[in-house]
Design goal:
With 304 residues, this protein is an alpha/beta fold. 38% of the residues lie in helices and 19% in strands.
Length: 304
């Protein structure tokens, strides 16, 4: 298989491609979008995500125009379909924050005001099923997801279906919320974010085959490891203390014991998954964001 070619941009060169795109987010709004232990400020939004939102806006307008041309040629009534954007990367790399920033920025363009973000966590098997299959220690690995259901959702969204129900996942309970669903109602742009969005499904089909554009968030493994441990320690003092938290047992650990637990989870689960399953999909992405050790984007790689 031929390795794809990318155009490489440093931060300064990429920032210059913003053009006249206005900065539409305030400092307070950026603060709300920032993920746990993730560095995000107005300068980063301006230099990295405004040019990216401009590029994506052009892609969306092109896709909308092509769709209308095809409908005119066929003499068929237009069937709106969302522009599908995938965001992939490791646990703790900051992809959720990036997805939220793009959701907010893209919704401010006049051609596509309706933007929805879906994470693939909702397509994990419930813990009861993972226990039955002996997969609780491999949660996040490809086999822990209902990949057929995820592929079906993206396929139907791509076809323009306007009422899609998907499961809801609770990070506090660390499980699918039984009996609760969310409706996705044919937005202008649908962002699908998760570890596995660039991986092949059980049938060999790729969810990403339905994407109009895809982003992989990359960083050095040692940096991601440090970010994961820092996030674990923050969660230990916040979310893990909640009464119904799945990981409540970690809340009372002293710092050395908690760090040891976090290091073990990273080395035995998350790093293995990253090296074996996630990073090998990087070259399927339309664009790669390479992060520095402080979470700033040091290089942008755009597929030719």
């Amino acid at each position: 298989m031929t390795k794809p070619q990318y155009l490489d941009f440093n931060r300064e060169d990429w920032a210059s491609l913003r053009g006249r795109t206005p900065l539409s987010l305030t400092e307070a709004e950026v603060e709300k979008l920032r993920g746990m232990n993730v560095n995000l400020d107005l300068d980063m939004v301006e230099d990295t995500f405004l040019p990216l939102s401009r590029l994506l806006n052009l892609y969306v307008q092109g896709a909308q125009l092509l769709s209308s041309v095809t409908d005119t040629f066929l003499g068929t009534p237009p069937v709106p379909r969302p522009f599908l954007l995938g965001v992939a990367g490791s646990v703790a790399v900051g992809k959720s924050t990036i997805a939220r920033v793009l959701e907010s920025l893209l919704a401010r363009w006049p051609h596509h005001p309706s933007v929805e973000l879906v994470t693939t966590d909702g397509f994990l098997y419930p813990n009861e099923e993972l226990e039955r299959r002996g997969l609780m220690d491999r949660k996040g690995f490809p086999e822990s997801y209902n990949r057929a259901a995820l592929l079906d959702f993206v396929t139907r969204a791509d076809a323009g279906e306007d009422h899609l129900e998907i499961p809801v996942y609770s990070h506090i309970q660390y499980d699918i919320v039984e009996g609760e669903t969310r409706v996705v109602a044919r937005p202008d742009i649908l962002i699908v974010e998760g570890l596995n969005v660039l991986q092949a499904g059980d049938s060999g089909a790729f969810v990403s085959d339905h994407f109009d554009f895809s982003i992989y968030v990359d960083a050095d493994i040692e940096d991601i490891r440090r970010w994961y441990i820092e996030r674990f320690m923050t969660l230990k003092d916040t979310a893990f203390t909640q009464e119904n938290a799945y990981f409540r047992r970690y809340a009372e650990l002293d710092e050395p014991a908690a760090i040891k637990i976090a290091e073990g989870i990273w080395e035995e689960i998350n790093e293995v998954n990253l090296v074996e399953n996630i990073r090998p999909t990087r070259d399927r992405a339309s664009l790669i964001l390479e992060k520095a050790s402080d979470h700033t984007v040091r290089k942008v790689r755009l597929r030719r």
